[in-house]
Amino acid sequence: MSQPTTAAQAAVATTFPRWVPLLLGLLSSTTCGMLLYAWSVFIKPLNAEFGWTRAEIAMAFAICCLVFGLVTFPAGRLSDKYGPKLVVCGGGLILGIGFVLSGFITSKFQLYVTYGLIAGFGGGVIYLPPIATAPKWWPDRRALATGFAVVGLGLGSFIMGPLATYIIANYGWRSVFWWCGIAMGLMAIIAGSLLKVPPKGWAPAGYKPPAAPAGAPKVTRDYTHEEARSTPQFWLQYLAYFCGSFAGLMVIGHLAGHGRDRGLSPMEAATAVSALAFANAATRILSGWFVDKIGIKVYFACLFALQTAVMLLLSPAGSSVLMLGLCSALIGWNYGAMFTLFPATCLQYFGPTAQGSNYGLLFTAWGFAGFAGPWVGGWLKDVSGAYYIPFIVGSAVVAVAVLVIAFTKPPAKISA
């Protein structure tokens, strides 16, 4: 990438500092974290009021994750073509409406529509554009910029877990949907209204593109979206993304319910949710720093291997606040790192030109896993009466991701 070639481009650094997209990404991803990652605090209240099973309650979360994941692809395409501003603002409005309407539900079907379809759709629309935009302002620190843009997913659940538990205890579960829905919609609209991409040809002062590896073509170009999705590496990454997300979202969808089943109080179970959320947030920045320093592959494989082991410890740890919190934090660290590592890998493999479309399609794996993981976890719990079988299944699925990451090689560079 070249230095700025016009006075207008050179002035960008003062009129729109490049740390602004990081903060806007943080704000929008915090909204998504509030939508998704504290869902398990609703399990006991909904079960008590309506008598729904764990699988029936988990279905709302599963639908939300599926819709969220599938919408990111067209949202990324629209953001690449028209810019992120209108896309994020529109998604924020839809998310807020769906979440508020969830506070009025009286049936499972209504919950599936308002939270699962409407709020999930809005969340999926706002998620990807800031993640695709932030690294364009930081070509010298792409993984770190990606990590900062998605750190709000963990921060949102860290806030939402105890906040929702407090509101439920004092005002009822419906008030969580009403008050937080309004706040989430406003947060996303504010973030979207200020977000923009850098001018063509822009680069930070002093930046020099890295030299091409030995033997590579001297002049290369980025993959188009059509070229990227035709490579085996893309679909191997897709499989790994599904496997890692399956286990992580199974835990997120049932963590508080698992703690309550093992005798913990509502706030103690929410503490485990917050421990997962805190680690989920921290890893998104720190993992990006590690990647920029030491590379992706070894770090990635080690994280998934650790996730495989920790999943097996979740069931016996459920009766101890300390042990459940520790296991939850480790799972949060490993799960959250994916949202830095997969976008960074996609950038490394295929380049930034079609990142919105490429990562949008890749992220649909998370959507399918988000549908399968929570629902399978709830169904296995209903059948077996405990969570140890779901967590064993989750561990086995993550083991597949370890093998995929360990043996996948980057695609060849394309000559310009």
Keywords:
globular; Growth Hormone, Chain: A; disordered N terminus; 416 residues; mainly alpha; 16 helices; two-stranded antiparallel sheet
Structure write-up:
The protein is mainly alpha-helical. The protein has a single domain (17-199, 226-410), classed as Growth Hormone, Chain: A (Up-down Bundle). 78% of the residues lie in helices and 1% in strands. It is built from 16 helices and two strands. A two-stranded antiparallel ribbon has the order 1-2. Helix 6 packs antiparallel against helix 7, helix 7 (142-171) packs antiparallel against helix 11 and helix 15 (355-384) runs antiparallel to helix 16 (388-407). The longest helix has 30 residues, at 108-137. It is globular, with a radius of gyration of 21 Å. Mean pLDDT is 84; it is low at 1-5.
Outline of the structure:
The chain has 416 residues and is an all-alpha fold.
Give the topology, please.
Elements: H1 7-15, H2 20-36, H3 43-50, H4 54-82, H5 84-101, H6 108-137, H7 142-171, H8 173-194, E1 220-221, H9 225-228, H10 232-261, H11 266-294, H12 297-311, H13 314-317, H14 321-350, H15 355-384, H16 388-407, E2 414-415
Antiparallel strand pairs: 1-2
Helix pairs in contact: 2-6, 2-7, 2-8, 4-5, 4-6, 4-15, 5-6, 5-8, 6-7, 6-15, 7-8, 7-11, 7-14, 10-11, 10-14, 10-15, 10-16, 11-14, 12-14, 12-16, 15-16
